[in-house]
Each structure stands twice: as structure tokens, then as C-alpha cells.
Q: What sequence folds into this?
């Protein structure tokens, strides 16, 4: 040790002192309010460059300059002009100029007081401006104004500012016998602390209690009780530790109150301040959060305390989520922490629980997310049914509510309660501005080519061809129709083409019906008996005779006689065809066929014959609701010109 000390002394002796010429100039030091002494050879310090040289900064006008300007301007004006100028300054909230205007004019000073201007400033809640006016115009002698000023500060809750202005403006503020020396009330430290306690500002009151040494009048325990009652947990805990009152105020009880109020951050802070980490461990805190149902804080502190590997704690958290009905979080974190493989926390089971608790949005979300649609088909149908049911019930509820609100009794009560503010209920009128129709084109059906099949001429074409070319047995035999004798025509052997124009009308009408759906042919049955005659009241008159204004057509060839016209009572209207949903009737025998058109219709559609033109229309219940639009060929019934 001695050798190390000797070496250090020798090293100090070797260092020689330098002269003042070789030493660098000393630094300028500032000690208190003394100005630093600059060395002789110090360089001139350049002033800092201005940031914005282009900006025109007007220096603040001092009170002396304002008063001088006001006195010079007021000396040249009449009293009426002075009062008008003062009124303009006050209405424009230029209170400093108004105070200077009053002080600079002898006429205004006799009529108005500066205290009135300060009162107007306090009405505007501009406390800093009011204090500045009192200080600049030396209004501290007006103790009534000072008392009113501090009272307004206390009413606004600015206790720190009230104490500062009271110390500055109230004479002998901290003296004990100052209030008894005067007959009027004054602000003292005790009255200010009482105002703080009344406003429940316990921390501020405790601060000034210690500052003014008033612990005997205001004990600390009362402030701690007030802080606990106001749930200022951290402030109460710090006061207990500062004044060492752990024996009277249990720290553990205070922490339990914080945990019960879910003040987790404050509780953890107090646990660290009171060094109670051995009692309140991280697992204990997380368990308290789980029991309270605060799962967001639970997940946060699970990560903060590194407790995510504690399977029992995580299992207890998910069970508590199910108990509180938090199925979304339960399914999510059971999958995240790997507990979905357990039977108790299986995702399908949790989805079923969500459906039972009517949390359909959660169930549908995870059914879609986990792709379990095939497993929950019945549940999805049940959810859709329940959703529609709830929508119907809600609409019914809103309709009943709207009906109740628009009832005369309810409107009368509303008119009585509101009086002049009552407004008549507006009637909602639905206005359709535009209707958009979307037409979805159908794909064309695949049709078989018909070019290879020869086109067979229709019955009318063959008849016209036969009439134009003359009678030929081969062409007539190809018709394959059996005709009755000519005695049924009633005109001997002379027939014309006009006698069967009604048959062509029936053919035209037959084309208006659609082609029947091909069905299996009905079994052969015996011909039905003739229909019974209709009663006299339902007998329909015969049609009026048709008058033709064109020359008669040439007679039919005599080789094939025309069919006879029907005689006797006309048949009743038959039921519609099988196309409209009715069963087809058995075919009529060839002997009962009335005309060529009906014969053609019977061979083509295998349906009962059509009614004659003079039959009544079908009943409304038998007619289809939507008419079928079919192609009707245009048939010309005009007679052909005679061949010469």
C-alpha cells in the first residue's frame, strides 16, 4: 500500500505548474446573479441568427404607453364621445384598453371604477387577465374586490391559483389573528383548506395542510379516508407509506379493494411500492382477473407474467369464458392454446353450446371458418328459421308500436304534455322513383335438325291444291277421312264451299290451342251415351244467319260427299284439354264427328271435339289464369275465284 501511495506522490511532484501565458482562457461562469467576467483575449460572440426575419413582430404595448395614449386621446374628446368609445371597448371585450381609457380620462374616472371592469372580466372567466389588471392598476387595496376574485377562483376549482393570489394580495394571509382584527370575512389558509375538503380535493388539501402546518386542525387520517372513499388508491397508498400508517390502514385490504374494483394497474403499482410481491404473485392476480370476468386483462397479463404454458390456468380461463357466455373467445383461444383436442373444449361441442345459447352469429362464423357445414346442416336450417322468426316478431312489434303511437289517445296525451311544441305525426308515403327489371336471357335449347325429314303439306294446303287441280280419286283417297251421305246437308245434292266455312273457323280455333303433352293412349272404351237434353232455361238461341257478300264458292267434287252438319241440341262445352291439368277424354267415334275441323282435331290431339261457335264461353274457374300464347296461322276463308 505504501509503495502505491509513494508512486502517486512522485507523479504529482513531477507535474510542473504552467504560467498564465501558456494556460487557455478560462470559461465564463455564472454564479448567481453576478455577471460573468469575460477574458481579455476572448472573441466577440456573434448574436444568434433570427429564425424569421420577414415576420413583423410588434412589441407588446406596456401599460404606461397605453395609459399615455388614452390620456392624450381622451383630452380632445367630449364626454359623450368618451362614453361612446368606452362602450365600444367594453362590448368588443377589450378590457385592458377600457381600463386604460377610464384611468386616462378624469371625467370617466369620476363616473366609472376600475373594479367594475375587473368584475366584467371575471364574468368572462378570464382569471389571468383579472389578476393582471389588479396587479397593474394597484387594486390590491380594494379588499372586497380581492375577496371576490379569490372566491371566483375557488368556485371554479382552481385552488392552486387561489392560494397563490391570496398570498400575494391578502395582507397577513398566514397570520392567525388577521380575521379577528377585521369585521369582514377574509380568506385564510384554514378557509381555503375547508373549501378544498368540501370540493373533495383531498390531495390538494393535504398538500397545503402540511405547507401551512395545520395537521392538528386537519388530521392526515381524515384525508386518507377521503382518498379511499374517492377511490384514489395510489394517492392513499403513497400517503400511508409516507406517514407510516400501515398499522392503522391495512395495505393488503387496500390492494384487495383495488383488485375488487378491477384497478389492475394501480394494484400492481401499489404491490411494487409496498413490496408485497411474495403475497400477490402473478398467478394470483390472473386468477382474480378470471374470476371477475375481465378476459382482455387476463390475456394481457398472461403474456406479461409468462403464464401461457400453465395449462391448468388456461383451462380455467376458457371454462370461465363459457360460464360468462363468451363463446367467441372460448372457441378462439381453445384453438390457439391447443385445447380443442380435448373433449370438454371440442370446437363442435362449443358451437352446439353457442347455438343453444342463441349466439347464432358465433356459431355460423365458426361453422364456416372450420368448414363444418356438412355436420351442422340441421343447425344451419334451425338458425335460418329462428332468424326469420325473430325478424317477423320484430316487425310485428314495430307495427304494434307504430299503431300505438299513432292512436288518438296517445296523441292526446302527447299534445297535453308538449303543449305548443307538439307536432302532428307525418304520414309516410312510399314514392317509387324507378323500377329496375333485370332480364336474364335463357340459353337456347338444343334442337334436332329437321332438314332431313320431308315436310308434309297440311290439310288445308292439300284441300286447296285438290280444289285448284280438280277432282282426282288418288288425291281424295289420300285424305283418309270417312264422310256420311249427302242427305245430311239438307240441300239435296247442291253444296257450296260457303256451307262449310264454319268448319274452317273451327279449324282456325283449333290452331289456337297448344299441342297437348304426349301421353299414353287411354284404354278403349265403349262409346258414351248421347248427352241428355238441356233444360229450356239453358237453351241457347241459334246463331244468326251469316250473310255473305261474295259470290258462292264452287261445289265440292261429287265423288266424296261432304260430312253432314250436326242436328238437334248442341253439345255442352267440353272441359279443357290435358294441357291445363285435366285428364283427356276418350276419342269420339268417327260417326259422331260433326265437321272436317273437328275430325282433324280428333285425329291430331286425341281430345274431345270443340264446341260450335255459338256455344257459351267456358266458366271462369275452368279457364287458365294465364293465357297461353301459341302461334296461330293466318287462314284465308275468302272463296277462290271460279275457274272458267
A:
Amino acid at each position: 500500500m505504501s509503495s502505491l501511495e509513494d508512486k502517486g506522490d512522485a507523479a504529482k511532484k513531477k507535474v510542473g505548474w504552467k504560467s498564465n501565458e501558456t494556460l487557455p482562457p478560462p470559461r465564463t461562469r455564472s454564479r448567481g446573479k453576478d455577471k460573468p467576467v469575460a477574458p481579455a483575449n476572448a472573441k466577440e460572440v456573434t448574436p444568434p441568427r433570427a429564425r424569421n426575419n420577414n415576420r413583423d413582430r410588434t412589441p407588446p404595448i406596456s401599460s404606461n404607453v397605453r395609459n399615455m395614449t388614452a390620456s392624450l386621446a381622451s383630452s380632445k374628446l367630449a364626454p359623450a364621445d368618451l362614453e361612446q368609445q368606452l362602450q365600444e371597448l367594453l362590448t368588443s371585450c377589450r378590457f385592458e384598453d377600457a381600463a386604460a381609457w377610464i384611468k386616462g380620462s378624469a371625467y370617466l374616472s369620476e363616473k366609472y371604477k376600475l373594479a367594475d371592469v375587473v368584475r366584467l372580466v371575471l364574468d368572462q372567466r378570464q382569471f389571468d387577465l383579472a389578476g393582471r389588471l389588479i396587479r397593474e392598476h394597484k387594486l390590491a387595496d380594494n379588499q372586497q374586490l380581492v375577496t371576490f376574485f379569490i372566491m371566483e377562483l375557488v368556485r371554479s376549482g382552481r385552488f392552486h391559483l387561489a392560494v397563490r393570489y391570496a398570498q400575494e394580495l391578502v395582507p397577513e394571509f398566514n397570520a392567525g389573528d388577521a380575521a379577528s382584527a377585521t369585521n369582514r370575512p377574509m380568506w385564510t389558509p384554514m378557509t381555503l383548506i375547508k373549501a378544498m375538503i368540501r370540493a373533495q380535493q383531498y390531495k390538494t388539501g393535504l398538500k397545503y395542510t402540511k405547507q401551512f402546518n395545520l395537521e392538528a386542525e386537519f388530521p392526515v387520517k381524515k384525508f386518507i379516508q377521503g382518498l379511499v372513499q374517492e377511490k384514489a388508491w395510489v394517492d392513499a397508498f403513497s400517503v400511508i407509506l409516507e406517514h407510516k400508517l400501515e398499522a392503522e390502514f391495512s395495505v393488503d385490504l387496500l390492494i384487495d379493494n383495488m383488485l375488487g374494483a378491477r384497478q389492475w394497474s394501480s394494484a400492481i403499482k401499489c404491490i411494487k411500492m409496498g413490496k408485497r410481491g411474495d403475497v400477490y404473485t402473478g398467478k394470483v392476480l390472473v386468477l382474480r382477473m378470471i374470476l371477475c370476468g375481465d378476459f382482455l386483462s387476463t390475456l394481457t397479463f398472461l403474456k406479461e407474467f409468462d403464464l401461457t404454458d400453465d395449462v391448468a390456468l388456461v383451462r380455467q380461463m376458457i371454462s370461465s369464458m363459457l360460464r360468462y357466455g363468451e363463446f367467441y373467445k372460448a372457441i378462439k383461444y381453445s384453438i390457439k392454446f391447443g385445447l380443442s383436442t380435448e373433449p370438454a373444449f371440442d370446437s363442435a361441442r362449443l358451437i352446439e353450446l353457442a347455438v343453444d345459447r342463441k349466439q347464432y352469429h358465433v356459431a355460423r362464423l365458426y361453422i364456416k371458418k372450420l368448414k363444418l357445414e356438412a355436420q351442422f346442416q340441421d343447425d344451419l336450417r334451425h338458425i335460418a328459421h329462428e332468424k326469420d322468426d325473430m325478424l317477423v316478431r320484430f316487425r310485428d312489434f314495430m307495427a304494434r308500436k307504430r299503431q300505438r303511437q299513432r292512436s288518438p289517445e296517445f296523441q292526446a296525451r302527447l299534445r297535453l304534455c308538449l303543449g305548443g311544441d307538439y307536432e302532428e305525426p307525418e304520414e309516410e308515403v312510399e314514392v317509387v322513383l324507378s323500377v329496375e327489371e333485370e332480364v336474364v336471357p335463357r340459353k337456347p335449347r338444343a334442337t334436332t335438325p329437321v332438314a332431313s325429314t320431308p315436310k308434309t303439306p297440311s290439310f288445308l294446303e292439300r284441300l286447296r291444291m285438290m280444289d285448284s287441280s280438280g277432282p282426282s280419286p288418288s288425291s281424295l283417297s289420300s285424305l283418309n277421312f270417312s264422310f256420311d251421305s249427302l242427305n245430311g246437308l239438307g240441300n239435296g245434292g247442291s253444296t257450296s264451299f260457303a256451307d262449310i266455312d264454319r268448319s274452317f273457323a273451327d279449324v282456325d280455333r283449333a290452331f289456337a290451342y297448344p299441342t297437348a303433352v304426349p301421353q299414353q293412349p287411354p284404354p278403349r272404351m265403349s262409346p258414351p251415351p248421347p248427352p241428355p237434353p238441356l233444360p229450356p232455361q239453358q237453351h241457347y238461341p241459334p246463331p244468326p244467319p251469316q250473310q255473305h257478300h261474295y259470290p258462292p264458292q264452287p261445289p265440292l267434287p261429287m265423288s266424296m260427299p261432304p260430312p253432314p252438319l250436326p242436328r238437334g241440341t248442341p253439345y255442352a262445352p267440353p272441359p279443357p284439354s290435358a294441357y291445363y291439368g285435366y285428364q283427356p277424354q276418350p276419342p269420339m267415334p268417327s260417326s259422331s264427328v260433326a265437321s272436317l275441323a273437328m275430325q282433324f282435331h280428333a285425329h291430331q290431339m286425341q281430345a274431345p271435339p270443340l264446341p260450335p261457335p255459338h256455344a257459351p264461353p267456358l266458366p271462369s274457374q275452368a279457364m287458365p289464369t294465364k293465357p297461353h300464347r301459341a302461334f296461330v296461322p293466318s287462314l284465308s276463308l275468302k272463296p277462290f275465284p271460279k275457274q272458267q
User: Anything to note?
Assistant: The radius of gyration is 57 Å. The mean pLDDT is 72.
